[in-house]
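Entry under discussion copied across for reference:
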Amino acid sequence: MEAEQRPEDVPMESKLKHLELIQGVINRMASNSFRLKEWSVVLVSAILFLAAREDSGEVALIALVPAVVFWGLDAYFLRQERLYRALYDHVRMLEPHKIDFSMKTDNFTGAKLTWPSSLFSTTLLAYYLAVVIAVVSASIAI
């Protein structure tokens, strides 16, 4: 027989459920970011392959377009992930009876929570600059 749920446990269960919902969003944002990196490599590689086959450095430079677009999208997902991490920290500190299941991140501000900050984060900058340098090098070599 299952143990009866005590009324004082209900608010804590609500808090845990809210934290699980937020963590799910954070996981999806991280997954989307990873997929963008995969697609950027695939598209840039395909364009560079075509450029090498055509023996055209100018065609190779077209690979900069998806690299830059994916960089911007990746920064968007990183920003969203950071906002939801801020929401998670906020909910984590709330009293259990104050849980309202809000998923709004509008109230969170800070230097690391902006799109430009995400665009030039260490990880994205290193990854996408490497892609851009590879494209430019390939266009010169072709």
Remarks:
- DSSP finds five helices and no strands in the chain.
